[in-house]
Write a structure and sequence with these properties.
This protein is mostly helical and about 280 residues long. It starts with a helix and ends with a strand. The longest helix is centred in the first third of the chain and has 25 residues. It folds into 2 domains: about 150 residues, Orthogonal Bundle (Lysozyme); about 55 residues, LysM domain (Membrane-bound Lytic Murein Transglycosylase D, Chain A), CATH 3.10.350.10. It has a two-stranded antiparallel ribbon with strand order 1-2. It has a two-stranded antiparallel sheet with strand order 3-4. Helix content is about 50%, strand content about 5%. It is elongated, with a radius of gyration of 39 Å. Helix 4 packs across helix 5, helix 4 runs parallel beside helix 10 and helix 12 packs across helix 13.
């Protein structure tokens, strides 16, 4: 009897072992889903859904929209014209004068002092409480104001002129009379260079910076220009652009004027002309 019971136990154990092994054999893991080779990237899906330009196309388009400058002066004017116009709106200093001074005194933004201090107008410390740099100018290692951003230099230039009594006469001038402003700056002692006014006027006329004054003033507030255009009741003045080879005599003869009349209309102190300069002349 004991032998029979033992035999039955062995058979049962074998049966259970066989069942366990069979279950184990039938268990299998789910194979990973294979990625299709043509599956779209997230960027490509967005591009197709929202019509986004390919990255290379956007890059090329940006290149097309980047202005091409002939020289550093044009780049400087492009970068700071809007700031100069804002300052003109706030403080009444012609944008043409501000830009021409910036071009001249900062070497179109490339000068050593400007690069290390963002000082575009060569304004010295004179009690300045902000950042400072030292630079050789009229004397060795003079103290100059330092700014975190060029726009603060333009604002300080406006304040420098508008808050000092010696420049008060400038603000009685017409805002589109850049020639009188240029001469007034020299007269008030802004610069020691005797040709400072002529240099400013040359820059303004070569790059037509007076157009920024006109943009700010609009047609209704151009007092200085209006006076020039109505110098004589028997003709209407127009603007002539000086070309290579032009002289005051040739221009005067072309428009039936004398040299002195051309100089008077345009407030010229000499017979020197610059290519691109604008002159008021008699309409043909």
């Amino acid at each position: 009897m004991k032998v029979r019971s033992l035999f039955l136990m062995i058979i049962c154990a074998g049966f259970l072992f066989a069942c366990g092994g069979a279950k184990k054999k039938t268990t299998r893991s789910v194979p990973p889903v294979k990625k299709e080779n043509n599956e779209l990237s997230t960027y490509e899906k967005d591009r197709q859904a929202n019509k986004i330009e390919p990255k290379e196309a956007v890059k090329n388009e940006n290149k097309k929209n980047t202005p091409v400058f002939k020289n550093d002066v044009e780049r400087y004017i492009y970068n700071f014209a809007e700031i100069a116009k804002d300052e003109m709106n706030l403080y009444g200093i012609p944008a043409s004068i501000t830009l021409a001074q910036g071009v001249l005194e900062s070497s179109s933004g490339k000068g050593e002092l400007t690069l290390k201090s963002n000082n575009h107008f060569g304004i010295k410390c004179n009690g300045w409480q902000g950042g400072k740099v030292y630079h050789d100018d009229d004397a060795l290692q003079e103290c100059f104001r330092k700014y975190n951003d060029p726009k603060y230099s333009f604002r300080d230039h406006s304040l420098f002129l508008s808050e000092r009594r010696r420049y008060a006469a400038l603000f009685e001038l017409d805002k589109d009379d850049y020639k009188s402003w240029a001469r007034g700056l020299k007269k008030a002692g802004y610069a020691t260079d005797p040709r400072y006014p002529q240099k400013l006027i040359s820059i303004i006329e070569r790059y037509q910076l007076y157009e920024y004054d006109n943009e700010v003033l609009g047609n209704g507030s151009r007092k200085g220009l209006a006076k020039k255009e109505n110098l004589s009741p028997d003709h209407t003045s127009i603007r002539y652009t000086v070309k290579k080879g032009d002289t005051l005599y040739s221009i005067a003869r072309k428009y039936n004027l004398t040299v002195e009349e051309v100089k008077e209309i345009n407030d010229l102190r000499s017979n020197n002309l610059a290519v691109g300069q604008k002159l008021y002349v008699k309409a043909l």
